[in-house]
Amino acid sequence: VDESTEIVKKLKLTGAPYKIYKNTAFIKNMFNSSLEIAKFEGAAIKTVSGIRGQIKRALSKPEGCFRATFEDKILMSDIVFLRAWYPVKPHRFYNPATNLVGWQPMRLTGEVRRAENLPTPKDRNSQYRKIDRVDRHFNPVRVPKALAANLPFRSQIVEAKKQKKATYMQKRAVVLGGEEKKARALVHMLATIQRDKEEKRAAKKEEGRKAFRKKMAEVEEMREGREKKDKQEFWRKQGKRRAGWDQGGGGKKQKA
After folding, report:
1. Domain C-terminal end among 52, 67, 89
2. Which of 125, 126, 49, 36 shows the shortest CA–CA distance to 17?
3. Which pLDDT belongs to residue 248?
4. What is the spatial distance between Cα 143 and Cα 34, in angstroms, rounded to a whole number?
5. Does residue 62 have a cis bond before it (omega within 30 degrees)?
6. 53, 73, 89: which is the final residue of a domain?
7. I need a surface site. Which of 40, 131, 147, 207 has the fewest CB within 10 A?
8. What is the pLDDT of residue 158?
9. Burial tier of 53 (Cβ tally within 10 Å: 0-12, 13-18, 19+)
10. Euclidean distance between CA atoms 109 and 115, whole angstroms
11. φ, ψ for residue 138 (rounded to 5)?
12. CA distance between the termini of the chain
């Protein structure tokens, strides 16, 4: 029985992309050197949004950055993190005890500190640090011009110049606030884009249905032709058989 134990350390490292291509990205602020990256080549990484990836190779410049591939294109605002178990090999120590009767074992580190009233040393790298996150910037939703031109009159997007002075009716009338107006316009734009996507999806499905119906019509035509040919062959054989019966006098005679 193998009674050996393996000591591992749980790691959770975070990084951020600084250059993004289609399914490839360059990640920074996760490692400090190329040697650390070499130990984790092939390790699985993941973004906060759930896109999985893999560490490929370290970059020559800058130090500590690496190339990674993902299932889909990630965003600059995504945080990439690595969860792994790193093996820790302790120093081997061997001290045989021949007699355990009067043997007093060596005190543990905590017992020595308690007896000597020594404080626990604090490592600066092990303390919690404040994490400064960069605020995410969302680009405004833009409706394509080709789509905006086909909108009905009530849904037309009017881009007029901002009015400096409010009119008398605007001052008197109860209108929506700035945030409410922006929210309503955003919802309307999103609904328009969603409607356009659904129309394109329906048109694509209809094309697939047309191709399927055409294929089924060809199969049905081939089946009908085959059945017609088999039927003609059957009646041709039946005609020959009947002609043979007429010439031979109706078959064999029965014995008395």
Report:
1. 89
2. 49
3. 67
4. 45
5. yes
6. 89
7. 131
8. 67
9. buried
10. 10
11. -100, 125
12. 96
Tell me how many domains the chain contains: 2
Element (H, E) at 52: strand 52-58
Closest CA to 75 of 143, 145, 136: 136
127 Ramachandran zone, left/alpha/beta (phi>0; psi -120 to 50): beta
- Report the alpha-carbon distance of residue 54 to residue 119 in Å, rounded: 42
More confident residue, 130 or 248: 130
Q: Could you give the residue ranges of the DSSP H alpha helices within the chain?
A: 34-39, 109-116, 145-149, 168-172, 178-247
Residue 95 identity (one-letter amino acid): N
Q: Sorting pLDDT into bands at 50, 70 and 90, what band is 12?
A: very high
Q: pTM for this one?
A: 0.42
Per-residue pLDDT at 256: 45
Three-state SS at 238: helix
C-alpha neighbours within 13 Å on the C-beta side of residue 15: 24
Q: Which two tokens stand for residue 120?
A: 């626990």
Would you give the DSSP letter of residue 59? -
Work out the angle at residue 207's Cα, subtended by the Cα atoms of residues 204 and 209, and round it to the nearest 5 degrees. Answer: 110
pLDDT tier, 92 (very low <50, low <70, confident <90, very high otherwise):
confident
* Of the listed ranges 23-37, 164-178, 192-206, the one predicted with least confidence: 164-178
Average pLDDT, the chain: 86
The mean pLDDT value for 169-181 works out to 73
* Domain membership of residue 227 as a residue range: 141-154+175-243
CB 85 within 8 A of CB 20: no
Report which of residues 132 and 21 the model is more confident about.
21
